[in-house]
Design a protein that fits this description.
Shape: elongated
Distance between the termini: 70 Å
Helix content: 10-25%
Radius of gyration: 28 Å
Organism: Phytophthora nicotianae P10297
Order of helices and strands: HEHEEEEHEEEEEHHH
Number of helices: 6
Largest sheet: 5 strands, antiparallel
InterPro entries: Chromo-like_dom_sf, Chromo/chromo_shadow_dom, Chromo_domain, SH3_Tf2-1
CATH architecture of the largest domain: Roll
Protein name: Chromo domain-containing protein
Number of domains: 2
Strand order of the largest sheet: 4-3-2-1-5
Length: about 190
């Protein structure tokens, strides 16, 4: 069986400087950072290839705390691809807000729903696949996206109501406060 498998199999080739992941199959639990092997990571790294030794063996730049012999066969290493690494997939784009705090970039407003305390918006974030429900006060800096969502969804908004709420300077200018303001005023219509 092995001869048939090995006939067309070519070992992976790496060059000095390539980043690779090291298999955790033959490593002790202390190297995997856990007391149970099945709970530990299957691959650790990435580590840089520092030297090619013979055919199919590579020396890796391991941290001294691992205390392992740094030469491994190609069957125990695989190329590191940044998109497969959890930290790269979960990367969140942070920006500095005008008030000095950090925030995330909003790609789009997808949906909304009314709750007891007000209106929640379903937000799609740049760099993330999941959406979250956010209250109006968390979306102060993206009022233009909220306005575009409301206009695209076909909700009736009167320009004079927006101007009235802005002139009174209630606080957060936008749909949520305008909706509360419209309940108190007979000149403004209901938003939805």
């Amino acid at each position: 069986m092995a001869q048939y498998y090995n006939q067309n199999r070519r070992p992976q080739m790496f060059t000095v400087g390539d980043e690779v992941l090291l298999s955790g199959v033959n490593l002790a639990e202390k190297h995997l950072g856990t007391t149970k092997r099945k709970l530990g990571p299957r691959w650790i790294g990435p580590y840089a290839v520092t030297k090619t030794i013979g055919r199919g063996y590579y020396q890796l730049a391991l941290p001294p705390k691992l205390r392992l012999h740094p030469v491994f066969h190609t069957s125990l290493i695989k190329p590191y691809i940044a998109a497969d690494h959890r930290r790269a997939v979960q990367r969140i784009f942070k920006v500095r807000l005008p008030d000095g705090t950090e925030g995330e970039l909003v790609e789009d407003i997808i949906n909304h729903k009314k709750k007891k305390g007000g209106v929640l918006y379903e937000v799609k974030w740049i760099g993330q696949q999941k959406t979250t429900w956010e209250p109006q006060e968390n979306l102060r800096t993206v009022q233009g996206l909220i306005d575009r969502y409301i206009d695209d969804a076909g909700f009736a908004r009167r320009r004079e109501c927006r101007e009235i709420s802005r002139s009174k300077e209630i606080g957060i200018i936008g749909h949520y406060l305008w909706f509360q303001f419209s309940r108190k005023s007979s000149t403004c219509g209901k938003t939805y």
